[in-house]
Amino acid sequence: MTQTSRAIPSAAVRGTASGVFFMAFFGTLWAYTGIMGLQGCGVPLLLVTAVAIGIALFIGGFSLIRASRELTNQVSKTDLRHGKRTSFWFNIIFAAEGLAIAITIAVSNATRHPELIPVIIALIVGVHFFPLAPLFQVRLYYFTGALLCLLAIMTWLFVPGTVTLGGHQINAFMSVVGFGSALILWGTGLAIWLMGRRLLGIVPK
User: Fold this and answer.
1) pTM score, two decimals?
2) CB neighbour burial string for 56-85, b if at least 16 within 10 angstroms, e if fewer
3) N or C terminus of the chain with fewer C-beta within 10 Å?
């Protein structure tokens, strides 16, 4: 580890690790949604694979936290105020996302269109990344949000609600949106992990 990397506040690397954890958890959750959509087809292997990917990302996040212990813990008052403001707005955005999802589930069930729930939720999750990008100063989140929104819209427009393969009925909305969202979030988590390693000076820019 270089002398330059030691001048980086450990909080910056820990924040990157938190992003990896977030993507690992919700990516795996979306993968489980995709597996549920298959309604029993190939579940054991896919479930093991999804959990393994999630665990691998969690391990990567913990490795960043462990490495951050060698960095400086000095935080200026300005950085402290910025951190509190960031946490405040993150909580607001996360709460708004949760409320929007709850409303989506209630309205979709009330109008007897539960098949739209995963599509609309993916759209909500995608939209919530746009304010996170400037909040955390991570431009990658714009790309993540755009991909999730595009996935939701394309699924709604071009994918049938259900598909029958070999006599087995599949909830196509759940599977396409679930696995697609999982791949997008896992890919984002991997990219964030690489950002953390660059902060540590482990991999070249």
Assistant:
1) 0.89
2) ebbebbebbbebbeebeeeeeeeeeeeeee
3) C
